Amino acid sequence: MYRDVIAVTNRHLCQSPFLEQIERICSVHPKALLLREKDLSEEAYEALAREVLAICDAHQVPCILHFFPEVAKKLQVDSIHLPLWKLKECASQLTDFSQIGTSTHSPAEALEAQQLGASYVTAGHIYTTDCKKGLPPRGLAFLRDVCNTVQIPVYGIGGIKLDAEQIAEVKSSGAKGVCIMSGMMLL
Questions:
Q1: pTM
Q2: Each residue of 118-170: pLDDT tens digit?
Q3: Phi, psi of 75 (to 5 degrees)
Q4: C-alpha pair distances (Å), 124 with each of 95, 103, 152
Q5: How confident is the model at residue 174 (pLDDT cuts 50, 70, 90)?
Q6: Which of 46, 39, 38, 126 is nearest to 83 (CA)?
Q7: Dihedral of the CA atoms 144, 150, 154, 156 (nearest 10)?
Q8: Strand (E) positions, the chain?
Q9: Across residues 20-48, what is the average pLDDT?
Q10: Of the candidates 177, 88, 80, which has an alpha carbon nearest to the alpha carbon of residue 126?
Q11: What is the rounded distance in angstroms from the CA atom of residue 46 to the CA atom of residue 49?
């Protein structure tokens, strides 16, 4: 089940110390860990990324850095995930990366991301989630539309539980896998 999961971090959801949680996540060997700590300055993010990378390396779990391409280059990480607006802004400066991901919320955005050089997209939110309170989920039909629009891998995100049946449901819509935040931060 975990081989289809990109674990997305949010240290504010952890009930144990963050690095202990990262250790726990890496011990189950997800497909990758996306270090997505949106409230940190670039310097604080870099310091945290160094610690997280050491844990990921020890468990041989790929680590995808978020938002700061210069930090990723400095730390010799060749996987980056950016908001779509930032991908548009710096697409021509990302030639050092073998994997570029971005978050999308429509088939048109996914297609634009592919044209900008993204190697994968996340699409959501699929199910009801506390992260998007008050916003109705886009659902599996939306996910199917995104998957049918692009040639690059699509990962469903939003309200997805660490549940084999639900993950299979998302994948049956054409997704390569899923991104899970809450379930991984509380693992």
A1: 0.97
A2: 999 999 999 988 777 778 999 999 999 999 999 999 999 999 999 999 999 99
A3: -90, 5
A4: 27, 8, 16
A5: very high
A6: 38
A7: -30
A8: 5-8, 32-35, 63-66, 79-83, 99-104, 120-124, 154-157, 177-180
A9: 98
A10: 177
A11: 5
- CA–CA distance, 148 with 167 (Å, rounded to integer): 18
Helix, strand or coil for residue 161?
A: coil
Gap between the Cα atoms of 177 and 95, Å rounded: 25
**Cα three-residue angle 185-65-53, rounded to 5 degrees:** 75
pLDDT at position 131 is 76
Distance of CA 175 to the CA centre of its chain: 13
Supply the pLDDT for residue 17: 98
Copy the structure tokens of residue 92.
């021509």
**What's the one-letter identity of residue 28?**
V
Peptide bond into 66 cis (omega under 30): no
As a whole number of angstroms, the distance between CA 140 and CA 172 comes to 9
Q: Encode pLDDT of 19-30 as tens digits.
A: 999 999 999 999
Quick: pLDDT tens for 60-110: 999 999 999 999 999 999 999 999 999 999 999 999 999 999 999 999 999
Question: How far apart, in Å, are the Cα atoms of 6 and each of 61, 89, 93, 117?
Answer: 10, 25, 25, 20
